[in-house]
C-alpha cells in the first residue's frame, strides 16, 4: 500500500499538505498527532470516503491518481475496486441498528459480493467467534456494550476479506477495559499478518503494538519511525512537544 | 393484493361493442326522478328511470346506468362517460349552451312549501325579505334571485332543504312541483301553498353534436306520448298534470292507480318500533359492505402509491442531482398548496382533454396517492435526515454502491422512524377517500348520503357508517401503536453508547 503526495483542501484551508507513506504487507502502523492535524482525513482519503484533491493512492494493485478536477464516474468505479481490498472501523462503530449483529456482518458479502447466504452466515459466525461474540449473533447492536459493538464492527469489515484494515480512533469512545477487548483483537490480526493502519490517541497501544508510528501535525507527516525510537528519542521538536503533552 | 386487483378491474368501465345505451343520473336521494327503491336498495326506480327504460326499449337497445354526482353529470357527458343524462334537467338557454336537449318529456311548475302553521307566504311576492331554500342552479333559484331582499339558501340535496324548513332554518322552500309533491306534501309538518308558479320543462341531455341519438330519442318520446305510455308512467307516479295534457294533447283521464307513489309512501312511512328499525338497518348491510370495500380498495391502493412515490420524491430531494431535487420540491409545493378535491376533479375531468382517460377508480387512486405522496415525501425527508451520516459511510466503506447504501441501510432506518407519522396519515387518507364520491364512486360516505336522505334518518345511519370507518381504521391504529412501542424501546436501548 502506498500513498504519494496526497493533498486535501477544505474551504481554502489545506488539511493535507502532501502526505506520502509506504506500508509493507503485514505492517501495523499507528498514526498519532494533535486534534485537527489531518490524521483522520488522511485515513479517509485512503479509501476515498474523502476525495483527495491531488496525489496517488495505490492499494493492492489498484492505483488512483488525482490531479484536481471533478470526481468522475470512472474514478468512482476505480474507488469501488479499491475499496474491495480495504476494511474500515469507525470511532462511533456505525453498526446498522436495524439489523442483528449477524446480519450486520453478512450484509455486505451477500449484497455486494453476491455470496450465497449459507456461506456468508457460516463465515460471519466464524468471524464473530474470532472476535468473541458468538453469543451475541442474534442481538441488536444497541443491546451491546461499546467494546462488543466495536468488535462486531471489526468482524463486519473482515467479512469482506480486506487486505488492509483502517481504524479511525477505534477506542476513543470506550472505557479503558472495553478498549482492551478491541485492541487485543487488533493484535491477533497483526499476528495473522493483516496490514493495519490505526489513527489513535492510545499511546500505550501505539508504542507496544505498532511496527511503525507516524506523527502528523499541521497536515504533514513530521516523523515516522520505529515506536521505540520515536517515543524515546524523537528527532523533531514538534514531536517532542506533543509527546510531552500526552504522556 | 389479488383482491385489490380484482376490485380495480371490476371498476374499470367495460368497453363493449354491443353498445348498450349508457345513461347517467344522480340516483342519490333523487326522488321521484331516479333513486334506489327504499324497499330494496339494490333496485333502481323512479319515473325518469322508467322513461329511460321505455326509450331504450323503443330504440331496441340494452341500458347501462351510470351513477354520477349532480355536479358531474354534464362534465361526464362532455367527457363521453355516457351517451345521455336524464335527471330532471331543465331546458334553459344557459343549459343549452353546454348540451343538446331532446324535446321536453315533462312539464311542471314551481311550488312553495312552508311549515304547517305558517300563514301568508303563498306567492313569490310574499317571500319578500324571507329566508327561502331551493336547489342550486335551477329555475326556482333564478326566480328567487329576482328579489334581492330574499335570502336564498341553495342546497345540493332536496332532503336537506325540507329538513331545514322543518327545523326552522328556512321560512319557505321553492322547488319544482315534482319534488314538492314527494318531499313537501307527505310531511305532516309541512304544506304546499299558493298557486303553481311559472313553468319548467325537463329534457334529456346529450353531448353537443350528438344529434343522431337526440333525433332517435325524440322519435321514441313522440311515440310514448302518442300511445299513452308516458301518460301511464306519470300517472303511476301521481305526476300527470294539466301542463302535460297540454304538452301531449292527451286530454284523456284513464283509470290508472298511482301504485308507484303508493309503494314509495309505504316504504318510507316512519317505522314504528325498534324491531322494524333494526330490520331496516340489517337491510343496509350489503350496501355498507360494498361501500366499505370500495373505500378500503381506494385507500389501500392510494397508500401503496403514496409510499412509493413519496419515497422516490424524498430521495430525489436529498440525494438526486440539483435539477431533479428542484423538480421534486416543485411537485411537493404544488400538490400541498392546492385542494385535494380540485386535484380529483382535475385528474378525472380535465386529463381526458389531453388524451388521458382514466376510469373513476384509477383516477381516484391516482389523485389520492399523488396527493398523499407529497406529504409522505416530507416525512421521509425528515426520516432520511435523521439517519446518521456515519451509516452511509460505513456502507460505502463496505464497498456498497450509493444505491445499495440507501436501499439496505438508510431507507429501512428512515422508514422505521416515520412509521408512527405514516400510520396517522393513512388513517386520514382513509377518511379523505370520501372525496372520490365526486367522480361517481359510491364509497362509504356516499352510501351514508344515499341511505340517510332516503329515510330521513341521519342519526342511526350515521352511527352505522361511523362504526364502519372505525373498523376500517382499526388495523392502522394498531399498527401505529406497535410501531410506537417499538420506536420507544429502541430509544431506551441506546443507553450504552
UniProtKB/TrEMBL annotation, chain A:
The protein's UniProt keywords, in alphabetical order, are: Amino-acid transport, ATP-binding, Cell membrane, Membrane, Nucleotide-binding, Transport
Q: What is its main location?
A: membrane
Query: What GO cellular component entries does it have?
Result: plasma membrane
The way it spans or sits in the membrane comes to: Peripheral membrane protein
Task: Report the SUPFAM superfamilies cross-referenced here.
Answer: P-loop containing nucleoside triphosphate hydrolases
Origin, by domain of life? Bacteria
Which residues does the UniProt record annotate as the domain ABC transporter? 1-243
Localization (cell): Cell membrane
- Quote one Gene Ontology molecular function term: ATP binding
A Pfam family name for this chain? ABC_tran
Report the family membership: Belongs to the ABC transporter superfamily.
Q: What is the official name of this protein in its record?
A: Amino acid ABC transporter ATP-binding protein
From TrEMBL, chain B:
Molecular function terms from GO: ligand-gated monoatomic ion channel activity
For this UniProt entry, which residues form the secretion signal? 1-18
UniProt GO cellular component terms = ATP-binding cassette (ABC) transporter complex
Q: Give every ABC transmembrane type-1 domain span.
A: 292-480
* Pfam families (UniProt xref): BPD_transp_1 (PF00528), SBP_bac_3 (PF00497)
What does it do? Part of the binding-protein-dependent transport system for glutamine; probably responsible for the translocation of the substrate across the membrane.
Descriptive protein name: ABC transporter permease subunit
